[in-house]
Structures are given as C-alpha cells and as structure tokens.
Amino acid sequence: MSPLTWIGDKIAHFLQKPSPTYQSETTCQPEALIKTLKKGDVLLIDGISRVSTAIKYLTQSSWSHATLCISDQYGVEKPDIAKVQLLEADVVEGVRVINLQEYVEQGTRICRPVSLNQEDIEKVIAYGKQRIGHQYDTKNILDLARYLIQTPPVPVGWRRNMLSLGSGDPTRAICSSLLAQGFQSIGYPILPQKVKPTNNSGYQSKLKHFFQSRHHTLFVPRDFDISPYFAIIKPTIEQHFDPYTFNWDSETKIETENQPPAVASD
Q: Which of 25, 30, 146, 189 is the most exposed, fewest CB within 10 Å of its CB?
C-alpha cells in the first residue's frame, strides 16, 4: 500500500464517523419510502457523517450522498425492506450494494428519471454493478479533508471545482460521478451545458442551441435534485396523504386556534 493510499484510508475512516453536532431527521415514514422507491431512482441522502458536512457546505445543498435503487418493492402491499437494494460509492468500502435499511431513518429525496424504458433502466443499473469493488477516489478524500477543517469561507464559484478534483483513475469513483456516468452511458441528461451553434449552415442553422454533456467529475448530489429531467417524488404524497386525517397533537392545535389573528403592518 502506497503512503498516499494509507493516508487516504485513515482520513476516510475519520470522515465517515458521525458528526458530533448534527442529527438527521427522516422526511417520511419508512414504509412509504419502501413502497414508493423504484428501480432506476436516484435516492439522495442528507447524511450524518463528517464528510457529509463538508459536501453539503461545499455544494450549498441539503444532500451529501447519491445512491441508485437497483431492486425495489414498489407498490407491494407488505414490502420487505431487505429486498430494496441501493448501489453507492462509499468513502471507506468503495462501490457496493447495500440495503435501504442503512438510510431509512435519515432525510432522503427520490429523484426519478422521466420516460425511461425498462431496458435503459437496466443498462444504467448494469453499468453501476460492473463497478462494484472500485474504490472511492482517495484524491477526492484528501480535498474534502482539506476544506472540512474549520470550514473556511470558500467563494461560491470555487466550491464545485473542489469536489471535482480527483485522481482521474477509472477504477475510483465518488457517488455522484458514478451515477452520472451511468445515466450518461445511455444518453440521459442530468444538467447538460447549453451551447450555441458554431456555424450557420446545414442542420445547426435551424437550432438556437444544443446540449453537451458535462464531465462526470463535475457532478454533485444536488444536481439530481435541481435537474429538470428528474421528477421529485414525495412518498407521503404518493401514498395518498390526507390532510383531514393528519395526526396533530391536540394541545398544540388548541393553542394555535386560540391565538389572535396576525395584524399586518408596513
């Protein structure tokens, strides 16, 4: 093991430990999440580790981690959480498959690719599975550690670039770049760059613009959230939320009802 790899491994174990100052809260009931999640969905995770704190700070986002659902219990009346599996790039373990139980008690968001047929979804999943065992990018870990210490005031324009500083080794990955490569392998857009035609002749003369893929190392978890090509799926609503049967605390409700109306002021 090289000195750089040894150092990266030690830092990775340190960064993966839970943050002593942050607690994550689930955004829906676990059963609703299990019933709603589908193969091909990107499940974003809030995260409670030290490395999560760094990623959320650098990306100015609520999401520190991205996983891909590769088997589901969608619509099953009595779902088995053990049959819901996620593919991810873990800081310590590298690219692996885990059970949804790992994240069911944390804040999550489902980002669903729109109008993809099942064949292409399976291709994205197969792309990720072929990389099981690849390691997390050690160079990226060192960059994260450098900017985690005292969370310095980093200009907004530099934050994304800090997460894209990697080794370039094809057998190493970070979570969002792994998923980005999978969707780009079938030509599905995430946040492509808009480019104007360079000449005025032929087919391009009829276009106001066209799109080019960004390099996979430039993607971060929040990109799946803000992408116009991924639908945000909220399990509570999908499982037929009824506001008229919402279980309010009775004392809190009475206090709210007895409050005087707010008076508008200039």
A: 25
- Record the pTM: 0.77
CB-based contact 54:144 (threshold 8 Å): yes
Pairwise CA distance, residues 178 & 66, whole Å: 9
The structure tokens listed for 183 are: 């969707």
Centre a 10 Å sphere on the Cβ of residue 142 and count the other Cβ atoms it contains: 16
Pair of tokens at residue 4: 């750089």
**How far from chain centre, in Å, is Cα 130?**
20
CB 69 within 8 A of CB 85: yes
Alpha-carbon distance 225 to 227, whole Å?
A: 6
Per the CB < 8 A criterion, the answer to whether 70 and 83 are in contact is no
Q: Which two tokens stand for residue 62?
A: 């609520």
Residue 107 token pair? 């804040």
* φ, ψ at 257 (rounded to 5°): -65, -30
Domain residue ranges in the chain: 3-240
The answer for 22, left when phi > 0, alpha when psi is -120 to 50, beta otherwise, is beta
* Residue-wise pLDDT tens digits, 112-161: 999 999 999 999 999 999 999 988 766 665 555 555 454 556 665 555 55
Triad 55, 127, 223: Cα angle to 5°: 30
Task: Let me know how many helices (H) and strands (E) the chain has, helices first.
Answer: 10, 10
* Strand partners of residue 88: 96
Protein fold of 3-240: endopeptidase fold (from Nostoc punctiforme) (3.90.1720)
Identity (one letter) of the amino acid at 47?
G
Do the bridges between strand 42-45 and strand 108-113 make them parallel or antiparallel, or are there none, so unpaired?
antiparallel
